[in-house]
Specification:
Number of helices: 15
Largest sheet: 8 strands, parallel
Helix content: 25-40%
Oligomer: single chain
Radius of gyration: 21 Å
CATH topology of the largest domain: TIM Barrel
Shape: globular
Bound molecules: zinc ion
CATH class of the largest domain: Alpha Beta
Number of domains: 2
Strand content: 15-25%
Strand order of the largest sheet: 8-9-10-11-12-13-14-15
CATH superfamily of the largest domain: Metal-dependent hydrolases
């Protein structure tokens, strides 16, 4: 009788910040044993991972599954297939669906749909803008709360937006009492509106290029972060800010952390990977990226912020729309859908950064897996490859090079902003709680395998 279900033999396992020469055994849903090379135990299946590395599965705190309401773009099944193929073993998605997740009843309906559809584990950040609903939602087990400061047209649904600092403080106080994380998309909407009016008055077209330039202006983000940090101090809320691509906001966040404020910092790949060239070649598929990468000081600050720990995690902002929908930005980017799918190519983009020496592998694992698990309060059950932890892992063919393309994608919209890119480092196997959900480019997981991750009060 074999003692273990699966043994990954001959590879290097990422643990405690380094790659270790050990074999990894899985029993049931958990990692059962890390054994030294040469020792051998019985396993029903032995996977030869010589020359490959094993890292913890990605825990993505920033997914837009589009389900319910926008399932022509993506749904739980297609999002989780793309996730599995891309090495994401847990995602937490956002409330800007239709109907938006603002009540306990809507949260329960959304969770039930995800339980049927998802191959990988999942949580959900509900809207945190109605302060009377907050304690009820927390009692129902939500993973955390999301507040958008940005408003306008979908996907920045005005029903989920809050700019008024008095009301924000009320909500922050209510969320602070729950002990759950409060995710905020920082944005100074009035300032953005004023920059927009100025640009139109100068005769700039209301297209994706003008939008991307204004949307990523430092002042729009820096002023929002400054106000959010003040409200965090007042309320004690566990604040998690996303899209932190502005250098001056990173300074503010670093100082706030130094003062001991409860704030964590997320960045998403598009801003510091997709530049003007991509915006010119691929157009609206790239917006609102295209301007951050062109500013060397800003980019240097971002990479430095990974090294010095100011940036805590990478969130994908997997945000699919059909190509026809984003193309409408050429006419009016202020009302058109905006965002891009990420999951299929996500990990390879960052593994390439590691190969290029921009980021260490240890830092990447910290930002993709370990810190997100800590933010959710589920570390070390997830986020690390220790005996007793969930067997959520990704086997990576470290040296393999490939040219990314729009062929064979799992996202429903069938395009990727990284098509044509040459990358190094490819996920070849993804496991969620002991079950292989993707292997050699094929998705093998079953809908319904994914389990809900409830919020943990901290
Ligand atoms: Zn988002």
């Amino acid at each position: 009788m074999a003692d273990y279900d699966i043994c990954f033999r001959g590879g290097r396992v990422h643990l405690w910040g380094e790659l270790q020469d050990v074999d990894l055994y899985v029993r049931g849903e958990s990692i059962a044993l890390l054994s030294g090379r040469g020792e051998s135990y019985g396993a029903r299946r032995v996977v030869d991972v010589s020359g490959k590395i094993i890292i913890p599965g990605i825990i993505d705190l920033h997914a837009h599954t589009r389900d319910p309401g926008y399932t022509h773009k993506e749904d739980f099944l297609t999002a989780s297939r793309a996730a599995a193929a891309g090495g994401v073993t847990t995602w937490v998605d956002m409330p800007n669906v239709e109907p938006p997740t603002t009540t306990v009843e809507l949260f329960r309906e959304k969770k039930a749909r995800a339980e049927k559809g998802s191959l990988v584990d999942f949580g959900h950040f509900v809207s945190g803008v109605n302060f009377e609903e907050i304690p009820k939602l927390a009692a129902a087990g939500v993973t955390g709360f999301k507040i958008f400061q940005v408003s306008g047209a979908y996907p920045h649904d005005p029903r989920l937006a809050l700019n008024d600092e008095g009301k924000l403080l009320q909500c922050f106080r209510a969320i602070a009492k729950t002990g759950l994380v409060c995710v905020v998309h920082p944005f100074n909407q009035p300032l953005f509106d004023s920059f927009s009016a100025e640009a139109f008055a100068q005769g700039k077209p209301p297209n994706h290029v003008t939008f991307a330039e204004i949307y990523t202006k430092e002042a729009v983000w820096e002023s929002a972060i400054s106000s959010l940090l003040m409200l965090q101090r007042e309320s004690g809320v566990r604040l998690h800010v996303v899209h932190t691509h502005a250098a001056r906001s990173l300074n503010l966040l670093r100082q706030a952390k130094g003062r001991g404020q409860s704030v964590t910092v997320e960045i998403d790949p598009k801003y510091f990977h997709l530049g003007r060239k991509d915006l010119e070649e691929k157009g609206p598929q790239v917006c609102p990226a295209g301007f951050v990468l062109e500013d060397p000081e800003r980019i240097a600050k971002i990479w430095r912020s990974f090294r010095n720990g100011t940036i805590d995690n990478i969130g994908s902002d997997h945000a699919p729309h059909t190509n026809e929908e984003v193309e409408k930005q050429r006419i009016d980017a202020w009302t058109a859908a905006m965002g891009n799918p990420q999951y299929d190519h996500y990990l390879s983009v960052f593994l390439t950064d590691v190969h290029e020496g921009k980021l260490s592998l240890a830092n990447l694992v910290r930002c993709l897996s370990e810190t997100p698990a800590r933010i959710l309060g589920i570390f070390p059950r997830k986020g690390i490859l220790l005996p007793g932890s969930d067997a959520d892992l990704v086997v990576v063919d470290w040296e393999r090079e490939r040219v990314l393309s729009n062929k064979g994608l799992f996202t429903k919209v069938q395009w990727s902003p990284y098509a044509g890119w040459k990358v190094q480092g490819v996920p070849v196997l993804t496991m969620v709680r002991g079950k292989i959900v993707a292997e050699d480019g094929k998705v093998t997981g079953e809908p319904g395998h994914g389990k809900f991750i409830a919020g943990v009060s901290q």
